[in-house]
Design a protein that fits this description.
The protein is built from five helices and four strands; from the N terminus they run E-E-E-H-E-H-H-H-H. It has 137 residues and is an alpha+beta fold.
Length: 137
């Protein structure tokens, strides 16, 4: 998963502003440093949303922007939060469907969660979505 940032030069600095992550922006002394800082800023922004129980907005393709990747662990937590929201379920309702506690579902939606593929298959089946994994060169 990735979000898109507008990377622009502002005097001696480069700024990275995320189109679909309101309030998420950073600076760097070079384009490369701005992109590195953008990755860190984006992940912090997403983690803050998850910890606060909010659902981050979904990214859109934006012409003329730079994609900034999100690490796979954080991607899983965000994607599960989106899928649960799309299904119109609370954590407690999803937990009942999966046969686990609400706290276990909450843990899956927190930054740093590291669920097994078997767990992800159970949860995605309960959400009515398909788990798809890809390895990309």
């Amino acid at each position: 998963m990735h979000y898109h940032a507008n990377i622009t030069r502002e005097g001696r600095s480069w700024s990275a502003v995320f189109v679909d992550a309101p309030g998420c922006a950073t600076l760097g002394t070079s384009r490369a440093k701005a992109l590195t800082a953008a990755h860190e800023a984006l992940e912090g922004w997403l983690e803050a949303h998850l910890v606060a129980g909010r659902v981050p907005p979904r990214p859109d393709e934006s012409p003329g922007t730079e994609p900034v990747d999100v690490n796979p662990q954080l991607t899983v937590a965000v994607e599960l939060r989106w899928a649960r929201q799309d299904a119109g379920l609370t954590q407690a309702e999803l937990a009942r469907r999966v046969g686990v506690s609400q706290q276990q579902v909450a843990k899956l939606e927190r930054p740093g969660a590291n669920p097994s593929i078997a767990t992800l298959r159970k949860v995605t089946a309960a959400l009515g979505v398909r788990l798809e994994l890809r390895l990309v060169a």
